[in-house]
Design a protein that fits this description.
homodimer, alpha+beta, Aminopeptidase, Alpha-Beta Plaits, 2 domains, 12 helices, 16 strands, 21% strand
């Protein structure tokens, strides 16, 4: 038994069917707890059953299919990814990992194979945070990291997460019932599109993920003086946007000097924001990531110092508030090794790529050992209607996933894992 | 008789009373054809009658008070400004010019003086365009520049100008009856707050306006490639916001090198505008003004060329569309001279300030010769609740206005004007 036996045609058909569960005509828009996500959940439940799994939905709306192993009561090996999308995103982000997980189980079932450990395939309900602006809802709930206040997050129509869950038939007060016992879990492996240009540059269909970069997300505000665009000479202005523009370029310059760091100003709002008024204030977001926590912290510090210097020189004020900060999360050495062996088996380089994006694996790492497989996507484009993965890369990635899962759920490996008596800790 | 005789206490009281005709609690909000503007019109009509004027409202809702001169049938000298405000604006913008015009006539009346030419004080109904997003409605109607399509402009509730006029008791179909015969008019002088910092820097209460700057208003778009903020190395990005930031700084630099030019990016919108996505597109507005049309055109050309260079270097595309362009409008030499003489009479410097902002005088210039007096406002702040003019500056500005009007409506001056047989042309 090896990964070549997967049914690529079925996978591509399923990806196309999921893509139909979308709002609007441009790209994929499938927000959590929407009519479109219900449509996707229904498809996934049907496919899981077809693959021989017992299906349930946990209290947060994660769809979970379980394929029993030969040793009843043994901890389950988890494979998963998410079904929600960003607004006008692509059809592979998240969906590919769910379809690949189901395909693996269905392949085993069709070959009459049953691994030692049970396998669970999880379709997480909300990873992107596009609706409630708070990411990894499904996996954080499962890992016991969701907080009651998350239920109060509101979407752009003012609907809270709790209200959205209720109208989806879920009971938000039961959210803690989604938490998994670490003892019942033997690891988590996620296949996901790379969403970056590295595999394309390396000319390889897929690779192992070494870990998930640490990230800081900040909100900054530059304050100057709003005044009439026609009456104030250039030399007497305190233009908040001109100051913010210098800061945006400083972010680019500072991150560009540090090889492991990326930094982005993704949002910028100008007040009052009319054509004939000199901007009085600008608010923006700053996102800094690195696999090296010290580098990330150093970059953020330098950016803030430089922004303050720029603002002082222009008679502006600068404030910056860190709203999220997460340390880098390395993948488990055991899982990385299993992926690398699967790569080697088909003559691929043992590439280890850091993930700059957060994934459900990030939250799952506080529950169990995690690993990830990245699949090449064209031009590194994701979160966009042009997102594209070549079918042959889908096939190669899923075959590598199958081989790694076979290794990780086989009797001997499972035994090793159980003997270590890992209690939810992620051991890199 | 000289300007000292004006009643400053009465003026300040009237400004305070007008300030009560406002919606909301922050600053002044007095949109055209609203309950608040009706309240202001009523006050102004009462004060005009008290000042000895015959009052009428023209078909567009401009309130006009007429104080007859000694020579019946002679063309009228006009003094005016507007009664509408922006949303949450200040209490002097527009209102000061109306109150000053009334004060001058009332001062003449109280001294038993009657100039050779009749004087008309006009309170324009809509200069700011805050309600219908189309400026100078009242003065454009009077100058014959209002077009039928302007009546279809809608406010944010979808109410058209024609509907708003009807519910205000006006007949929109009669809008052309507001047009004045140029032969019946001997000039237009407007006192207005500066809305800029020049007088404050010059340490003087008021000055003559040399003209109203020409303006170009453009919309530009920078297009790059949206991608995930965590996965694309800095060197492989095509960040539209980083490009737009360079363009904002180029606008500042190019305008800063040309003494007569100001240029402003007042609005900037980032797409998709989320913290974890590298901006794929940015849209902004560019406002360029100058008293010298050639300088304005040269600045705009240089900005666009530089923006294209920046975009090319970064692999971005840049497009720019001019949505409005207006030539500079110089004030009449005769009126500027009268104001300068009035300044000199009270020991003030003969300052000539270009107006970067549009005013009713801009529309009136296509009807008759125009002049303006600017009054210092604190920190140059306007269109804001903090707008403030010191009472002594109100007094000085109104005294200068009175002296200039006395000169411009006296027998000899009027004779000179009539002999020139000017037909609505503005002769600088």
């Amino acid at each position: 038994m090896s990964g070549d036996k997967i049914n690529l045609e079925r996978m591509m058909h399923r990806l196309n069917q999921l893509a139909l569960c979308s709002r609007g005509s441009r790209g994929i828009t499938r927000l959590s707890f929407s009519r479109e996500s219900e449509c996707a959940n229904r498809l996934v439940r049907d496919w899981m059953r077809e693959a021989g799994m017992v299906v349930r939905m946990d209290p947060l709306g994660n769809v979970i299919g379980r394929y029993e192993g030969r040793r009843p009561g043994a901890p389950a090996f988890l494979i998963g990814s998410h079904l929600d999308s960003v607004i006008e995103g692509g059809k592979y982000d998240g969906a590919l990992g769910v379809v690949a997980g189901i395909e693996i189980v269905q392949t085993l079932r069709e070959r009459g194979l049953r691994p030692d450990l049970p396998i669970e395939v999880i379709a997480f309900c909300d990873e992107e945070g596009a609706r409630f602006h708070t990411t990894l809802l499904g996996s954080r709930a499962m890992a016991g990291m969701l907080r009651e206040e998350d239920l109060c997050a509101r979407d752009s129509d003012g609907i809270t997460l709790a209200e959205a869950m209720r109208s989806f038939g879920l009971d938000p007060s039961r959210y803690t019932d989604a938490v998994r016992d670490p003892q019942s879990v033997a690891g988590y492996l996620e296949l996901h599109i790379e969403q970056g240009p590295v595999l394309e540059r390396e000319d390889q269909a897929c690779g192992a993920v070494s870990g998930i970069a640490g990230a800081a997300r900040c909100r900054f505000r530059v304050e100057g003086r709003a005044s009439h665009a026609g009456t104030v000479p250039m030399s007497l202005r305190r233009d908040a946007l001109a100051g913010a523009a210098e800061i945006v370029l400083a972010v680019e310059r500072i991150a560009g000097r540090m090889p492991s760091v990326v930094a982005t100003v993704g949002q910028l709002r100008v007040f009052p924001g009319t054509s004939n008024v000199i901007p009085g204030a600008v608010e923006g977001t700053l996102d800094v990531r690195s696999m090296e926590d010290e580098q990330r912290q150093a970059a953020l510090k330098e950016i803030c110092e430089e922004a303050e210097r720029i603002s002082r020189r222009r008679g502006l004020s600068f404030t910056c508030r860190t709203v999220m900060e997460a340390a880098a999360t390395p993948c488990s050495a055991r899982l990385v090794q299993a992926v690398e062996e699967a790569l080697a088996k088909r003559g691929l380089k043992p590439l280890r790529i850091p993930s700059g994006a957060g994934h459900d694996a990030l939250a799952m790492a506080s529950l169990t050992e995690v690993g990830m497989i990245f699949v090449r996507c064209r031009n590194g484009i994701s979160h966009h209607p042009d997102e594209y993965v070549a079918p042959e890369d889908v096939g190669t990635g899923t075959a590598v996933l199958l081989d790694a899962v076979l290794e990780l759920t086989a009797a001997e490996t499972a035994e090793k894992f159980l003997n270590k008596a890992v209690k939810g800790a992620n051991t890199p």
